[in-house]
TrEMBL record:
Species in which this protein is naturally found: Smutsornis africanus
Protein name: D19L3 mannosyltransferase
UniProt-listed InterPro entries: Dpy-19/Dpy-19-like, Dpy19L3
Residues spanning the membrane: 41-66, 179-197, 217-235, 242-258, 264-281, 312-329, 341-362, 415-441, 462-481, 487-509, 521-540
UniProt feature, compositional bias: Basic residues: 1-10
Gene that specifies this protein: Dpy19l3
UniProt similarity note: Belongs to the dpy-19 family.
Taxonomy of the source species: Eukaryota, Metazoa, Chordata, Craniata, Vertebrata
Length: 716
């Protein structure tokens, strides 16, 4: 297993005014401040200082995560094979295509090798550009080849520095979103500081560098910032067109770099749908956002050689259904409360029916089954019946796909982030409910409108969108821990906006009858500054200690295995084993694989389940026949899987295989009544006894404390 060990060393407080807001600030004598040259100069100065702070914080974040990565692995000092092994599981698979493009004789040959790849899955030729989101690796490798930097920068550093550089884009986008919502760059400063101090829960880029989400989330944050600006009122036509262009580019790049883009944008589309139903967003802008999502995804689909999983996505079906249903129901937003509610319920049912029908139709005519494992997983996760499906259980048993642990909230509360977030969320939700009721009822009572005046100011369209966005992605994070990074980063934005919002403090002070304009202004700045001082005092020493802690990469068993494979097996050899390990085998040795961690293909999932019979209770003849059917020359067995203790009984890989095969699980505990004892012992244990029935098919050619490699006999 890959571990790290202790390294043996031998070698501003803001005082600026708000960003110009949509409402004009007026003096008691009626003179408009923004008309004065002094006011304009002050605004320009504030925007300039805020921009400099944003860029500085973004760059500091990049340097921070790069330093943590270097300190944790001693990346600059370890061998190339150790660097590559540090790209664990699917990270190694993605990086291998960057390496392949770099090492190709020409760019054309590199692209041809990806389009007609026969080394990622043995006895099959697949199109990597269609199956996987690796255009970023292609672009980066081409950029590295054409730029005059080969003498000064190794390919691996060009790759990781690009990812760390995207963290600067990420932080700047979060900063700008918070600034746009609150009107002051102090809010952006607070959001960025929270993002950094809650790093454990906001990003994992420093130890999973090539992961798709590390490419995609910065563009998603840029998209949210652009949507936030788009939803402001009184935009000029030119501003609106430029912003729509920015939203499209960010949406396209986000979709291009992550295979789960369609599910994230479906949640975003649901947010837009909810707000549009309650008349909280301009319908024209919502329509444009639907169209941008569709066009961005279809463009990615074309670049991925018309990937069927994209064509069968729920997002395309849902967005098309909304546009069709809206055409049918033209008077959706007219009438009294009961009339509106009736129309709304009918509208929701219509959209739901159209979505299911369109999606079912597309999947039927295209014979799509690529994403069925996701729906099986969701069905089992939310209690719609138990399942023995191997793929669904594989996800259910992984901690990353479980519920968000409770200790996450205690960590987020230490920085005051979660406490403030819940406070702001509660206030905004109450206001949103009241505003939604008013919009539906169409009430014209003067007294009611007077009471709601502050609320409507507080819940402007951009704030309403970010409210629903954080609620929906919060639900996703609570249900699936791996998706928490989509929520926690936006939590920083939302909490900082609430703490620096004039409207929220105005509402609070009016509720307790303490409102004055001056008092609101003082609180708006003093509370965030005090919060920043508290964060700095409490967490700055810890960050400095973290940056001074030096470790080094240490995984001698895997290094020994990779070196043996490179030295003792032919380049055309085919290897079988666990998905995670084989990704490293491809990256470090270039050998052909039987299976790999990119799981979004039905044939690959079935193949992986068959290969994993090496850890099940099967006869040596059965295992040999299965492995040879995939052209296997060598099989790698891992003790960490065969004798797994990381998961509890019922979730160990060998247990999942036993259940799928109808066999009783090992160890003490209950079994389902229809499970039966296996006819054969566990293959990965029995093969080590060198019994004749095993040695006739398998010869051990390598072993260390972790791995056992067997060569398959080639019977006629």
């Amino acid at each position: 297993m890959t571990t790290v060990r202790q390294r043996r060393v031998g070698k501003g407080t803001e005082a600026a005014e708000d960003q110009p807001s949509e409402e004009k600030n007026v003096k008691p004598d009626g003179k408009i401040l923004s008309d004065h040259a002094g006011g304009k100069l002050w605004n320009i100065l504030s925007v300039t200082v805020g921009g400099i702070v944003a860029i500085s914080l973004g760059l500091l974040t990049s340097v921070y995560v790069a330093t943590l990565h270097e300190n944790d692995l001693w990346f600059s000092n370890i061998k190339e094979v150790e660097r590559e092994i540090s790209f664990r599981t699917e990270c190694g698979l993605y990086y291998s295509y960057y390496k392949q493009m770099i090492q190709a004789a020409s760019i054309q040959q590199g692209l041809h090798g990806l389009v007609y790849d026969n080394k990622t899955e043995s006895v099959r030729t697949i199109n990597i550009l269609e199956r996987m989101n690796v255009y970023q690796e292609v672009f980066l490798s081409i950029l590295y080849r054409i730029l005059p930097i080969q003498q000064y920068l190794e390919p691996v550093y060009f790759y990781i520095y690009t990812l760390f550089g995207l963290q600067a884009v990420y932080v700047i986008a979060l900063y700008v979103t918070s600034w746009l919502l609150s009107g002051t760059w102090l809010s952006g400063l607070l959001a960025a500081c929270w993002y950094i101090t809650n790093r454990i829960d906001t990003t994992r880029v420093e130890f999973t560098i090539p992961l798709r989400e590390n490419w995609a989330l910065p563009f998603f944050a840029v998209q949210i910032a652009a949507i936030t600006y788009l939803l402001r009122t009184h935009l000029q036509p030119v501003q609106e067109r430029l912003t729509l262009t920015a939203v499209f580019i960010a949406t396209f790049l986000f979709s291009l770099t992550w295979q789960f883009n369609q599910f994230m944008m479906l949640i975003q589309a649901l947010a837009l749908f909810i707000l549009d139903c309650f008349d909280m967003l301009p319908t024209a802008k919502v329509t444009w956002l639907y169209i941008i999502q569709i066009s961005g995804l279809l463009l990615v689909c074309a670049l991925q050689f018309f990937n069927s999983m994209i064509l069968g996505s729920l997002l395309l079906s849902f967005n098309a259904s909304v546009l069709i249903a809206r055409t049918i129901q033209k008077n959706l937003k007219k009438g009294g409360l009961l009339n509106r509610l009736g129309k709304l319920i009918l509208h929701v049912l219509l959209v739901l029916c159209f979505t299911l029908l369109i999606n079912k139709f597309i999947k039927k005519i295209l014979y799509l089954e690529s994403d069925e494992h996701i729906f099986k997983f969701l069905k089992a996760k939310f209690g719609f019946g138990a399942t023995r499906d191997f793929d669904a259980n594989l996800y259910l048993c992984e901690e990353a796909f479980g519920l968000l642990p409770l200790n996450t909230f205690s960590r987020l509360s230490d920085t005051l982030l979660f406490c403030i977030y819940i406070f702001v969320l509660f206030l905004m939700t109450v206001v949103a409910v009241i505003v939604a009721f008013r919009n539906l009822s169409g009430s014209s009572q003067v007294q009611f409108k007077e009471k709601m005046e502050e609320c409507t100011i507080t819940l402007k369209p951009d704030a309403a969108y970010n409210l629903i966005h954080t609620v929906l992605f919060g639900c996703l994070a609570l249900s699936t821990m791996r998706m928490k990074y989509l929520w926690t980063s936006h939590m920083c934005v939302f909490a900082s906006f609430g703490l620096c919002s004039t409207e929220i403090w105005k509402l609070i002070l009016k509720c307790i009858h303490l409102y004055t304009s001056r008092r609101t202004h003082v609180i708006k700045y003093s509370v965030p500054i005090i919060t920043l001082l508290y964060i700095s005092y409490k967490f700055w020493p810890g960050i400095m200690d973290e940056l001074s802690e030096l470790r080094e990469f240490y995984d001698p068993d895997t290094v020994e295995l990779m070196n043996w494979i490179k030295s003792n097996t032919p380049n055309t050899a085919v290897f079988a084993g666990s998905m995670q390990l084989l990704a490293g085998v491809k990256l470090c040795t270039g050998r052909t694989l039987t299976n790999h961690p990119h799981y979004e293909d039905k044939n690959l999932r079935e193949r992986t389940k068959q290969i994993y019979q090496i850890y099940a209770k099967r006869s040596p003849e059965d295992v040999y026949r299965i492995l040879r059917s995939f052209g296997t020359d060598y099989v790698i067995l891992e003790d960490s899987i065969c004798y797994e203790r990381r998961h509890s009984r019922g979730c160990r890989l060998r247990d999942l295989l036993d259940i799928a095969n109808g066999h009783i699980m090992d160890g003490l505990g209950e079994n389902e009544p229809d499970l039966k004892p296996a006819l054969y012992p566990r293959f990965c244990e029995e093969i080590k006894k060198n019994l004749p029935s095993y040695t006739v098919h398998f010869t051990r050619v390598f072993q260390n404390k972790t791995f056992h490699v067997y060569k398959l006999a080639k019977h006629k």
